[in-house]
Amino acid sequence: MSLTLAEAGRALASPAAYADDRRFHEALALLRRESPVHWVEAAGYNPFWAVTRHADVMEVERAHTRFLNAPRPVLGTAEYDHMNSERAAQGAALRTLVHMDDPDHRVIRAIGADWFRPRAMRALEPRVRELARRYVDRMAELGGECDFVRQVSVHFPLYVILSLLGLPETDFDRMLKLTQELFGGDDDERQRGVTLEEKLAVLLDFFAYFQELTQARRAHPTDDLASAIANARVDGEPLNDSDAASYYVIIATAGHDTTSATIAGGLRALIEHPDQLARLRADPGLMPLAVDEMIRWTTPVKEFMRTATEDCELRGVRIRKGDALLLSYPSANRDEEVFDDPFRFDVGRDPNKHLAFGFGVHYCLGAALARIEVRAFYEELLPRLESIEFAGEPQNIATTFVGGLKRLPIRYTLRG
């Protein structure tokens, strides 16, 4: 049964829709073809424009003074938007880089920027490769069958980013659970609860943990990213506790959940496209291109929102001051105007102008690290992989923001 345009638009506000790849991409293709800037009215949500074409997403991202992140940086229910505006007025809302615009964004982003520059990434790479080896060894120890998501892919990037922050390994499981509850608030298996108060409690737990960390690093500075954040000064003053905790939250959560989604989604794609797996194994020099194709194919960040600061036009559609726009990255990354045969998984795709890391001033701070992690893992896995197949049905998380697979049962043989 074919979708109507209205149904296709509402799919962008349906966590369950994102869990059904085929149906979701059918909805996005319809919007790109017939209504690429589409007004969406969905029950329980404030209305918004759905922006589904690559060129239009780029245009909005470039015009960062015309289209602001605040006050609605991600899609939430109307109830959530109201609560967030109330907490912002009280100075108690989550205020990460995702929530900020210039000049605050530029100044706050600079605090962590040096930790993700090429020199820092080169210094970190041996540790990343060591951890990649550990988790491929872990696959071998599991005896040829595992749930790749729950037993491998969620742990490897978590160890990398929390090691960079300088958190103790004893806290890693706690961080994993909180991250899954935060990004899985709409998924029956991962949510802590269904009410807004129960979901807010996850954020409060994060804040409590990171406020303790801030106090500890200020009392006893160390040589890690957590200490750099805790002791940063803006206009001569330290970050307030809320802004410091918000900084930790975005690094600790987005810094691993998106990468684990790419690693798992990439493996699923290789299993589903054995010709591409064979091609990559035969030509390891394709790995940098393959990594970007896995990122495009998976697109872990599903959307960000922007709010227009003035009346304007986008692809001939009149946008009014105060209107909200949803930038659909999975749609932009399958745009027929940009990608040759976009629904073909191609480990040699070149060029690959995907927008999975965003664009412009809000380009993902950890993009280089994510690429290093995915590459390190597959450069460790593929030379040892003799065979691999599904051992059950892959399952996606229900979400409208960040996510990918929550289950990937596999059966495999490794050498060594």
UniProtKB/TrEMBL annotation:
It is an enzyme of class 1 (oxidoreductase). Signal peptide: none annotated. Its EC number is 1.14.-.-. One of its GO terms (molecular function) is iron ion binding. This is Cytochrome P450-terp. CDD domains: CYP142-like. Keywords: Heme, Iron, Metal-binding, Monooxygenase, Oxidoreductase. Coiled coil: none annotated. It comes from Actinomadura macrotermitis. Belongs to the cytochrome P450 family. GO terms for biological process: cholesterol catabolic process. It comes from the Bacteria.
